[in-house]
Amino acid sequence: MNKDLFLDDLGDGVFQIRLERPERMNALGVATVSALEQAVADAAAAEARVLLIRGSGRAFCAGADLKERKGMDLAARMAHNAGINAAVNAVAASRCVTISVLNGLALGGGLELALACDLRIAAAGISLGLTESRVGAFPGAGGTQRLPRVVGASRALHMMLSGEPVTSEYALGIGLVNELVAPESLDERAIGFARSLAGRSAAALTAIKRLVYQGIEKPLADGLRLERAALPEILGSADYAEGLAAFAERRPPRFNQPTLTRNPA
Length: 265
Fold this sequence. Notes:
Layout: E1 5-11, E2 14-19, H1 30-45, E3 50-55, E4 59-61, H2 66-70, H3 74-92, E5 97-102, E6 105-107, H4 109-116, E7 119-123, E8 127-129, H5 143-151, H6 153-162, E9 166-167, H7 168-173, E10 179-181, H8 186-198, H9 202-215, H10 220-235, H11 238-249
Parallel strand pairs: 2-3, 3-5, 4-6, 5-7, 6-8, 7-10
Antiparallel strand pairs: 1-2, 8-9
């Protein structure tokens, strides 16, 4: 694994990618994004059911490494951006549940990386923003598309046009983050929550992701048809039979955890 990040097996089907460039606020350099894309693939190969992404030091990720990019020509800059997109899109396409653990500031491509995750748990008192307009650019790794889908067009435009970061408290209020946790409790909460999700039926979690992401882009009637079409496989599954038995017997269910074989999209 590249020294810029580490993939840790936390047990119980939970894996964590830890960005490890604290001296550069975990900025996304060329080598970093290549390693990130590979780490996502490695987690999938190891049958991860939940994947956490976390930064080291005082930042989650400050975005593209602009010091590195400054010396690039246009072709190299475009290639760097393509690498960031590939890594972010790999996270978005992951078959497991993905959670960004926002231990510190998340700016530019760092927030775009967080937006590619299914869920975001943030430490209180941090800053988040798509700040590209301040350096004469725009969010080019999915930010212009994913942020409006999460917080609505008006709030997304305000954040992107101004380029000003927002507090994690404000982010919670607009739905940009799902939970706000005291910094000293962040890892305990994130890992505990991840383990609880990893204990759910893998087939059910995969179906939920697929139905939400496919259905949200369709008219309601079409989305409801997708939902109905997915029911027979789930209601006829061994996991559902185990869930019903566990409910009747007043015990926790013991779901099978097969390899995830389909992307949610």
